[in-house]
Design goal:
348 residues; alpha/beta; six-stranded parallel sheet; five-stranded parallel sheet; 38% helix
C-alpha cells in the first residue's frame, strides 16, 4: 500500500474490538501499529468500526458493521454471516485469508518464539543424554478426537506416556505450562481434534518450542509448512501399534533422534515475515474500504437471520423439497405423448 493511502487510514483512527475468540492481542497490536487503530474493550464492541469474532457465540448478531471471522477451530467461513474471514481453509480471495491458528504463535513474545525455532543451537549427544528425558508427553483438555484417544491409550498400556492435562491425567496434577512440561520428553503427542486440509493449530508448534519431537496427526498438508524430517507423521502408519513400535525403536537410536531434534523446523525460514505481509495486504483492502463497506448482501443478511432462527438445515430442507417437486414434474411430463400437455383434471 502506498504511504499516502496508509497515512489516510491512520488519520481516521478506526476502532476495533474482538469477542468470543481466543486472545488475538499480539495480532491486534501489529494491526494497530500499522493502521493507527484504537482497541476497544469487548463490552464496547457495538461501538467499534470493525469487529473480530468467532463462531462459538452469537453476540456478533447484534453488530451490523464489518464482521471479521477469526477462528482457531475447524469451522467453515460462512460469508453469509461474516464480511471477511481468517481461517484454516485454503481458499484465498478478497474476502478470505488462509491464516491457521499456528501462525498466531509466530508473533507472540515480540517474535521471540519464532526466533527460538529459527536460531536454536545444535543439540549434542552428551547434552541429550544428560537431560535424561522421559519417553512421551501428552497435554489435552478434551477427548474430542477418537483417534488421538486410541493412540494415547496404547501408550498408557505400555507405560510410555505422562498425561499432564485434565484429560487422561496420570501424573496426579495438571501442569501449568504445557511447553515447559514437554521439555522433559523425547516426544510429544500433537494430534489435532480433526483432520482437514489446512487445519493446523498450536499443537505442533508447542512441541517444537519445547524441543520435543512432535507426533503429529491432522492436516494432511502439514509437510508443506513444517519440515517432515523434524517430526513423526502418524498418518504414515497403518495402525497405532505400528506407530508405537517405530517410536520405541527411534528412542533407542541417539543418532536419528539428534538428526530430528536438530533439523530445521520450517520448510521456509521466512514464513513469519511472508505471512505477515499477506495479513497486511489483506487488511489494507479492508481498512481502505472503510467501516461502512460491509460485504454481506441484503439477501445474505436475510439468509443468515433465517439460518440462525430455523437452524442451518433450513435451506437444505428447502432445496430437498424443491428437487422433489422438480423431479415429480419432470417424471409426469416425460410420461405424456410427444407434445401433449398435462390436463388440470389429471390426478396428481
Amino acid at each position: 500500500m502506498a504511504s499516502d493511502a496508509l497515512s489516510e487510514i491512520k488519520s481516521k483512527s478506526y476502532t476495533i474490538a474482538w469477542i468470543d475468540t481466543f486472545d488475538i492481542s499480539r495480532l491486534a497490536s501489529l494491526l494497530a501499529k500499522r493502521y493507527g487503530l484504537r482497541v476497544l474493550p469487548w463490552n464496547r464492541f457495538l461501538e467499534a468500526d470493525f469487529l473480530f469474532c468467532d463462531t462459538f457465540d452469537y453476540k456478533y448478531e447484534k453488530y451490523d458493521g464489518v464482521r471479521i471471522l477469526i477462528t482457531a477451530e475447524n469451522h467453515p467461513a460462512d460469508l453469509n454471516v461474516f464480511d471477511y474471514c481468517l481461517t484454516h481453509e485454503k481458499k484465498e480471495d478478497d474476502r478470505r485469508l488462509y491464516f491457521p491458528y499456528f501462525r498466531y504463535r509466530l508473533y507472540e513474545d515480540g517474535g521471540k518464539s519464532i526466533a527460538s525455532l529459527l536460531e536454536r543451537p545444535a543439540l549434542g549427544a552428551e547434552e541429550l543424554a544428560a537431560q535424561n528425558r522421559r519417553f512421551c508427553a501428552f497435554v489435552c483438555r478434551n477427548g474430542a478426537c477418537k483417534r488421538r484417544n486410541r493412540f494415547v491409550r496404547h501408550l498408557i498400556e505400555r507405560n510410555l506416556v505422562d498425561c499432564g492435562g485434565p484429560f487422561m491425567n496420570n501424573i496426579g496434577h495438571c501442569v501449568e505450562d504445557k511447553v515447559e512440561f514437554q521439555r522433559g520428553y523425547l516426544f510429544s503427542v500433537a494430534y489435532e481434534n480433526e483432520s482437514a486440509p489446512g487445519y493446523l493449530t498450536e499443537k505442533i508448534m508447542d512441541a517444537f518450542l519445547a524441543r520435543s519431537i512432535p507426533i503429529y496427526w491432522g492436516d494432511p498438508c502439514v509437510a508443506e509448512i513444517f519440515n517432515p524430517e523434524a517430526f513423526v507423521n502418524a498418518a504414515d502408519f497403518r495402525s497405532e501399534t505400528e506407530l508405537v513400535e517405530y517410536l520405541v525403536r527411534l528412542s533407542q537410536d541417539p543418532e536419528r533422534l539428534l538428526r530430528m531434534l536438530n533439523a530445521p523446523v520450517f520448510r521456509n525460514p521466512r514464513i513469519a515475515e511472508e505471512a505477515l505481509q499477506g495479513v497486511y495486504a489483506f487488511f489494507d483492502r479492508i481498512f481502505e474500504r472503510g467501516p461502512g463497506a460491509t460485504r454481506r448482501t441484503r439477501w445474505q443478511r436475510i439468509k443468515a437471520v433465517l439460518q440462525n432462527y430455523y437452524g442451518h438445515g433450513f435451506f437444505r430442507t428447502l432445496r430437498r423439497i424443491s428437487r422433489r417437486i422438480r423431479g415429480k414434474k419432470v417424471g409426469r411430463e416425460s410420461a405424456l405423448p410427444n407434445g401433449a400437455m398435462p390436463s388440470k383434471w389429471e390426478k396428481k
